[in-house]
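Dear colleagues,

As part of the handover before I leave the project, I'm documenting each prediction I ran so the next person doesn't have to rerun anything. This entry is a single chain, and its sequence is reproduced below.
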Amino acid sequence: MPRKRWNWMGVVAFLMAGGTVFLGFSALGTTAVLLSAGLTALVAGLTLRRIRKHEQAGKGFALIALLIAFLALVVTGVSIAVLGFT
């Protein structure tokens, strides 16, 4: 069985998810976290579609990035509901 070609966008989405977590723990505000998490979810979703279509490797990175992005959106949404925009 030949090796699958690697999709580097999964790694990019994973790094973006790490940036989203960093923004969440910094004091930059909820708007930056919402934008970052939304962009990460978009990139990870598009990457998963491309990986599935072209049968490429890197699915784990994209799935973890998508999970982190959605968790960041949920946690930010809860903090906005409790504390309001900061």
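The CA atoms of residues 37 and 72 lie 6 Å apart. The chain has a mean pLDDT of 91.

All the best with the project,
I.
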